[in-house]
Design brief:
It is a single chain. By secondary structure, this protein is of the alpha+beta class. The chain folds into two domains: about 40 residues, Arc Repressor Mutant, subunit A (Orthogonal Bundle), CATH 1.10.10; about 80 residues, Alpha-Beta Plaits. The chain has five helices and four strands; from the N terminus they run H-H-H-E-H-E-E-H-E. Strands 2-3-1-4 form a four-stranded antiparallel sheet. Strand 2 and strand 3 form a beta hairpin. The protein is elongated, with a radius of gyration of 20 Å.
Length: about 150
Amino acid sequence: MSVHLDEMDRKILRVLRENGRISNAHLAERVGLSASPCWNRVRQLEESGVIEGYTVLLNQKALGLPEIVMIEVTLDRHDDETFARFGEALAQMPEVMEAYLLTGEYDYLIKVAVQGTEGYEEFLRRKLYKLPHLRHSRSTFVLRCLKRSASVEP
């Protein structure tokens, strides 16, 4: 379901994307509205699901988990229950930053944060490889992040 956004909604979303902690007064000033109509628009964007929530981006390096690894996974079964259980297990692993169910050669693409190759090996052996129905995985270490965004430009 698509929501119609006018240019003012887009301005609000661009500012919030830059700084989700901005006060309503400063947001209103930046987009050229008074505080009350600005607040109403933000609330409507939240209620319509355009704004799903607010979060903080953490520096993985500062947290001691500087390596990002992308893991492609193939399962040996493709029924709803297997997908559901595998997805639930991934969601419980703190190292997993993102996980996607895919079409194509692999079933999942998983983004994990680890502490070096030892941390990666530990994640594989103690967590990922213990999940049922995992048939194959292929991993790639990220050398550098070229773009990081929580959403696309509205």
